[in-house]
Each structure stands twice: as C-alpha cells, then as structure tokens.
UniProtKB/TrEMBL annotation:
Residues 329-349, 553-577 are annotated as: Disordered. This is NPH3 domain-containing protein. Keywords: Coiled coil, Ubl conjugation pathway. It comes from Nyssa sinensis. Residues 173-457 form the NPH3 domain. Belongs to the NPH3 family. Residues 329-339 have a biased composition (Acidic residues). Pfam families: NPH3.
Length: 577
C-alpha cells in the first residue's frame, strides 16, 4: 500500500491522529520531511486496504465494532503499524488484545472464526500467538464440554450402581461441525491439541469423518464405489485433496473401531485415486485389516484406476488387507479391543471373525472371477491368504472357482488341477457335491474325489437309516466312513480299512461253518452206536446221553439254519463292500 504526502503538510503531519498513534508511519514521515513530495510505501500490509481502513477509522474516531470477524486483522495491523501504548493511550493494539483475551478465548465458535480469519494473516498471526491461543482455547473448551456431557449421561442402574448410559445421545461433540470450515493445516493443529488434552478417540474420529466428507465428496466418485469411472483422476486433480487425505490418515486415533470401516475404505479409494504416499495407503490397509470382519463386499470392490489393461478391481490392495488380517496378533497392543478379542478357543470372537472373513473372501472371489484380465496366480493368492481352518464349508470357494473356470475356458489342465486343489471336497454340502459331480469343467481327478466322498456320505446316510444292523464290526466300519474320521484319513487308507474288515468278517463266517460241520458229524456217530448196541447195560448208560443227544438235536436243528443266515450276512457284506 502507498500513501502520498505533499511537502506543505510534512511539518504539520506529526499532529495527524494516524501519524501520532502509529510508530511506523511516524518514522516514515520523519525520514521524508525534507522532500517536496514524499511517497510512503507500506509493503506487505497484513489484511490489505481493509485492515488499514479500520486502523484509520480508529485513529480518526470513526465508530466501528470489534468482532471475532475483524479482531485478528486489528491485532496484526496494529502490530505492523506499531500502534502501541508507547505512542497513544488505549491504542488499537491494546484494545484488540483485550477483546481477544476477554471475549474470544471464552467462546469456541468465536475462536474458530478467528482462526478462519488468520488463514490470510500468516505468518504474522502465528508470530503474535493469535493462532496458538485460539487452538488452546478450542481444545480446552471441547474437553470441558465432553466431560460435562459424560456427567450428564451418568445414571444409576437397578442395582444402585452408577454407570454411563451409552445409548443416550452425546451432546458434547457439537463442535465437530464448526471445525470443518478450517483450512487443513489449522485443522491439523486443532486436532493434535485435542488429542493431547484427552478428547475421546470416538469424537476425534467423528470430526475426521465429517471434515473429509466435506472436503472430498466434491469428487463424488471418491465415495461412491458403484459409480467409479475408469479414468486417470490424478492428472486432473490438485494437490489439495491429496494433502487432505494424507493429513487425515496421520491424525487418526490408534484405538480400534474409533473410525467406521466404511469411511476407511472410502479414504483408501481416495488415496489410491489421488496417488497418495505409500505410507498413508499402508496405514489404511493395516487399520482395515484389523476390523475386516465387519466389512461388506461393496467395501472390498476397490476399482483399479490407472492401467487400461489391468483388472477391473484392485486385487493387490485387497490381498495386502487380507495379509494384515491373517497376521494380526490377538494379544497385540492398543489397537486391540478387549471386548472383541479375548481368547483363541474355537468359540472365541476371533474365530467368529475368521469365519465371517472367509465368507467375505469367497464372495469377493466370485465377484472378480469373471474378469478376463485376472491372472490365476492372483486368484489363488487371494484364496490361500486365509488359513485352512477358516472355511468350515467350501461351497462359496467352489462357486468362485467354477465361475473362474467358466470365464477362462482356455485354462490349461495343470492350471485347472492347481486351482481345484484349493477345494476340500469333503466340506461341500450335498447340493454343491451333486453339482460338482456333474461339472465337466472340473478336472477328472477332482470329479473322482467328489464321487468318492459322495459315496461315503451315502453310506453314512444308510447307516443312520438302519441302526438295528449296527453290529460291532459294521459299526466301526461306518464310523471310519464318517466325515469326522474320513477327514483325517486318505482315500487309499479308508478303502484298505474297509477291505481288511471285510476279510475279518469272512473268516468269522468260515469258522462258524466248520463248527457246525463238527457238530453234525458227532450226531451221526452217536446214532450209529445206538443201533449196534442191544445190551441193557448199554441202554442204561446210554439213557444219560439221550438228553445230550436231544440237546444236540435241538441245537443242531436251530443252528442248521445258521449257514443260510451266514450266507445272507456274507452276501450283504459283499454287496456293501
């Protein structure tokens, strides 16, 4: 800004209110007192002509109101013009400072408005500590409001204990909307101060979500996965959005579940689209992996933005997320919530999370399988990320592999075999097994395995239908054919066990036949002896054998039917075998 002063006023200008109250202008006028025409240049005037006009009004007694909208300008212009108490009592500098300390610092909304005005007054506003004072006031007020809100939600339970009502609405976070108007650098400093003051992580997370949505939803494709265009967005975007994403990622609280997973996925899409730093993307992937069990299929469908010949979806990013999920330690640091991870037993929440993620991965594989550009190695890498015990049933994995085989009909036989080795055919449901048995896209070896396990399942069903025929040897045979034990035995070992038990049954039947033949021969010999003997002594002694003879005759007549029964049993075992 330039002030023009003629020579005839130079001697008397010291009496002007503006010159008398401003130390800077007084010095400049004194330097040009001997010139005919003097130009006073005010370089880098904070706030421009508007600020200088306010200072001039103050000097000449023109009434105007000091408000939160102009107090930052007045503080900066008064410091620049050196309008201090040294040159005039109750000068502009002291008046602006008084208003800032007594009025603005006690009101959070006014502090935010002053910070917003300071965006165009940096770095002078920072040097005068206007920014730091407002940030400290905002953090303190937010913390106090949060404590007051927490006390308001305290209530007594039926047992007389004092507890927090988590269902009641939290009214201490009304400042979240106010902070969204700040520029990203000032917003970062405010959130950092709040974290140091102990503001709840959930409140910090809610503020980050609100700020990001306001700054980034101008690009609707960043947050709407169903309308992602296949274009190179990075070339046409400014660095402002990239700076916002990277800053928000750095401000995220470390506590798990403090930020919704849907927001994390939206931010990850933005980071990929805007080509943010690798550190920011890896941090987002790690956070998503720690709570992947609550994600949805739409969350995982991250489009691939850059290469025209690449896959439709960003498979590499999803693979890294799954690796983070698989490698996470349940006993780990502050990221773990004790209410979520408590034990490693099969019924623990971590095991439940593993089952949920396995279903999610199978659905994701089925969604990306029709992509003609999807390589077999990437498909297998996604499927093998989870441990073997994660899938209790393989119907979803079988469906995804079948879709991939249908979309990639030119796949070589070794590749098809390698792909189908991922499926445990014993873990297919009856419907999936029936479909696989007739699926010509599967390799022949896989179809044989399906038929074999379907036969075992049928035998189990027959065993359950006829429980009265479960003799001890047969019962053991059915148990070995059951799903629980057959899962621990190879098909060859299972078949050898059945043959061995069949041989043992046949040997037992042969021993029974030999015993029956011996009894029949003894009976014939005794009848022959009776016909040759005529003496009374022999008859009296033989009378004792009559009972035995009748007994043998009765048992032989009863057991004479045994060979036919044994033959039926033998034929039944042979048929089952």
């Amino acid at each position: 800004m330039i002030l023009t002063v003629t020579s005839k006023y130079l001697n008397s200008c010291m009496q002007f209110p503006l010159v008398s109250r401003s130390g800077r202008i007084r010095k400049l006028v004194a330097e040009h007192r001997d010139s005919d025409i003097s130009r006073i240049e005010l370089l880098s005037l904070p706030g421009g002509a508007e600020s200088f006009e306010l200072a001039a009004k103050f000097c000449y007694g023109v009434n105007f109101e000091i408000t939160s909208a102009n107090v930052a300008q007045l503080c900066c212009i008064s410091d620049y013009l050196e309008m201090t108490e040294e040159f005039s009592k109750n000068n502009l500098g002291s008046r602006a400072e008084e208003y800032l300390e007594s009025i603005v610092s006690k009101n959070l909304e006014m502090c935010v408005e002053v910070l917003q005005q300071c965006e165009n007054l940096l770095p002078l506003a920072d040097e005068l500590k206007i920014v730091s004072r407002c940030i400290d006031a905002i953090a303190s007020k937010a913390c106090v409001e949060q404590i007051a809100s927490s006390f308001s939600r305290l209530e007594y339970s039926s047992s007389g204990r004092l507890h927090m009502n988590r269902q009641a609405k939290c009214d201490g976070d009304w400042w979240i909307e106010d902070l969204s108007v700040l520029r990203i650098d000032l917003y970062q400093r405010v959130i950092t101060a709040m974290k140091c003051r102990g503001v709840r992580p959930e409140s910090i997370g809610a503020s980050l979500v609100n700020y990001a949505q306001k700054e980034l939803t101008k690009k609707s494709s960043l947050w709407n996965p169903s309308s992602q265009p296949k274009v190179d967005f990075v070339a046409g975007s400014s660095g402002q959005e990239r700076l916002v994403v990277e800053t928000i990622v750095s401000l995220m609280p470390v506590e798990k579940l403090a930020i919704p997973i849907s927001f994390l996925f939206g931010l990850l899409r933005s980071a990929v689209m805007l080509d943010c730093t690798v550190a920011s993307r890896l941090d987002l992937e790690r956070r998503i992996g720690s709570q992947l069990d609550i994600a949805t299929l739409d969350d995982l469908l991250i489009p691939s933005f850059r290469h025209a010949g690449d896959t439709l979806f960003d498979v590499d990013t999803v693979h890294r997320i799954l690796v983070n999920f698989s490698q996470q330690d349940d006993s780990e640091d502050d990221m773990d919530d004790a209410s979520v991870f408590e034990s490693d037993s099969p019924q623990s929440p971590s095991q439940t999370a593993l089952f949920k993620v396995s279903k999610l991965v199978d659905s994701y594989l089925a969604e990306i399988a029709p992509d003609a550009n999807l390589k077999l190695t990437k498909f297998i890498a996604i499927a093998e990320t989870l441990p073997a015990h994660a899938r209790t049933i393989h119907d979803g994995l079988y469906r995804a592999i079948d879709i991939y085989l249908k979309a990639h009909q030119g796949l070589a036989d070794p590749d098809r075999k390698k792909l189908c080795k991922l499926i445990d055919f014993q873990k297919l449901s009856q419907e999936a097994g029936a479909h696989a048995a007739q699926n010509e896209r599967l390799p022949l070896q896989s179809m044989v395995q399906v038929l074999y396990f379907e036969q075992l399942r049928l035998r189990n069903a027959l065993c359950c239908s006829y429980p009265e025929e479960d003799h001890k040897p047969m019962h053991q045979s059915w148990r070995i054919s059951s799903g629980a034990l057959s899962a621990a035995m190879s098909p060859r070992d299972n078949y050898a066990s059945l043959r061995r038990e069949n041989r043992e049954l046949k040997l037992e039947l042969a021993r029974l036949r030999m015993r029956l033949n011996d009894l029949e021969k003894e009976h014939v010999c005794m009848k022959r002896d009776m016909e040759k003997s005529n003496s009374q002594k022999f008859l009296s002694s033989f009378s004792k054998k009559i009972g035995k003879l009748n007994l043998f005759g009765h048992s032989s007549s009863r057991e004479s039917s045994s060979p036919s029964n044994s033959q039926r049993t033998d034929s039944k075992v042979t048929e089952r075998t």
